[in-house]
Amino acid sequence: MLDLIGIIYFTLSVLYLLGSFPIGVFEFLDLREGYAISDYATLFETSTYFSISAIITGLLCGLDSITNPIYKKVSINIYNYHALSSFALLGIGLFPLTGDGVWSFPRVFHWLFALTFILVYPATRLLILKHYNKRAFEKLLIVFLSLNILALLVTIVVQFKNIAYPEYLMWLSLLLTIVVSKILISRKSKNAE
Question: Is there a contact between 148 and 166 (Cβ–Cβ < 8 Å)?
Fold first, then answer.
């Protein structure tokens, strides 16, 4: 349940920032043409709030993944990858973007944390769901892959100028995967008891 609270909290935090401080207005501060959701970490007005929200969410997701006994019934490798990737959002908060160049060390490090959380965390959750419910796994996998492929297509269409739009699709994919899989896994584990 902690992961659901964390992900919904982070979603609402980003929506609040998006409404209060539209990203495109601050595009010039990022020293590149496009902008991404993580650019909130570069703005004085929003950096602390964004980073703390990411840290809290990373901790909640991580604590859920290591304390929930449901996840310990799968293979040890899947469990370990799930636990490690669930803490990745913590890294985004601890290592926020800076105004440095596109290929600077902090920016690449930040991207690795972001991609790990957005792609690996829900993928490992899908593998856990497969252990409990193969039919639901197949359906949810199609949704997960479809939204991420659509995000890639949007990235190509906007020519990598506005990364925030594909990020919204990828976050929607993560949100759906985590919420639906959590509900299905909880039901299966209760029925098994």
Answer: no
Residue type, 189: S
Structure tokens at 101: 């160049």
Q: Check residues 136 and 30 and name the one with the higher pLDDT.
A: 136
Counted residue by residue, the chain has a size of 193
**What pairs with residue 162 in β-bridges?**
35
**pTM metric for this prediction:** 0.82
Burial readout 31-51 (b: 16 or more C-beta within 10 A, e: otherwise): ebebbbbbbbbbbeebeebbb
Separation between Cα atoms, residue 147 and residue 155, nearest integer Å: 12
Tokens of 18: 């998006």
Distance CA 134, CA 72 (A): 18
